[in-house]
Amino acid sequence: MVPKANEKVYVPLWRLWPRQPYFTVSYPDELALHVKLPLDFIRLGGDNTLRFVQDVAQMLVEGEEVLRDSANIDEALDLENEPKEALYRFIPVNPGIVFEEVRGPESAQSALGAPPGYIESDDRTESEPFRRTDDQASWSAEGRTGRKCQLTTSRRLQSNFREGLLIRDGSCPFTYKRGENCEAAHLVPVARTDVYEKLLGTAAPYEVSFGLLLSPNLHRSYDRYVWSMYYKNGRYSFHCFDYTDDEAAHLHGKSFAPSDMRVSKEDGESAYPDPELCRWHYRQCVLMRVRGYAVNMAIAP
């Protein structure tokens, strides 16, 4: 579909990557949705398969669909094959069902707002929304007495959160910057307690599995949806959605496994970065950069 006039618009992924071959995925005609993916984004990302393409395409719509080659729409694809420079079609598993585009992307602060679009120009770039710190978020919530108590609690929780990540990670898993020079990053923004509650049933986002130790630059670019982690088969792969960010572009395709982390037998898999939180963040990047515009995110004046 064409984005509404009051919705945010973003520079799409295929324009933010170097000029190169890409392929197109089209959707049922009623959606009027067509997206382009650079072949190198897939090839260098660690999962050079049509199955990955199908997964990304699925993130944009409600309802189960399946990927086909437009030249032979009735024949099932071998999803383990590599994508090629072609036109693919994403069709409903059950014919006759009408699908809708997924709402989003959502901002780091609220489910009601989208990240800034490229037409909004001030001192920040189009991909750099204002980011509240934990302290600022706490101070904006209650009265003066309540604020002080909440701020103290927030600092204590954040301190424990960072200590747990230092023990588990030791360093940034992508840049290898030493832990003392890194920041405790949340996989989903700390202000989005609604996401933690919906996905994991908790509104207290300070478990070790809810975060990752990142270098300061990567932390900032992660919060701006410049890059995200794609989780599959026990590996977390770095995917860059904005190739104009030199550091993120250099790290595209780099990955790590849970075995690279220091986790006790008692904690086990529960201490690893939570795949559901990773997928939420990854989907916001896909909605922002693969689709290139927001849907149902405009707030009425």
Concise overview:
The protein is an alpha+beta fold and 301 residues long.
What keywords describe this structure?
single chain, alpha+beta, four-stranded mixed β-sheet
Q: What would you say this structure looks like, in words?
A:
By secondary structure, this protein is an alpha+beta fold. The chain has a domain at 140-282. Helices cover 30% and strands 14% of the residues. The chain has 9 helices and 9 strands. The protein has helices spanning 13-16, 39-43, 50-58, 134-139, 144-169, 193-200, 216-223, 246-251, 275-291, and strands spanning 22-26, 34-38, 65-69, 87-92, 183-186, 211-214, 227-232, 235-240, 255-256. It has a 4-stranded mixed beta sheet with strand order 2-1-4-3. It has a 3-stranded antiparallel beta sheet with strand order 7-8-9. Strands 5-6 form a two-stranded antiparallel sheet. Strand 7 and strand 8 form a beta hairpin. The longest helix has 26 residues, at 144-169.
Number of helices: 9
User: Can you list the strand order of the major beta sheet?
Assistant: 2-1-4-3
Low-confidence stretches: 119-147
Shape: globular
Largest sheet: 4 strands, mixed
Alpha-carbon distance between the two ends: 23 Å
Q: Specify the structural class.
A: alpha+beta
- Report helical residue fraction: 25-40%
Q: If you compute it from the alpha carbons, what radius of gyration comes out, rounded to the nearest whole angstrom? A: 20 Å
- Estimate the mean pLDDT confidence: 87
Order of helix and strand elements from N to C terminus:
HEEHHEEHHEHEHEEHEH
InterPro entries: HNH_nuc (IPR003615)
Region (Disordered): 108-144
Pfam families: HNH_2
Biased composition (Basic and acidic residues): 121-135
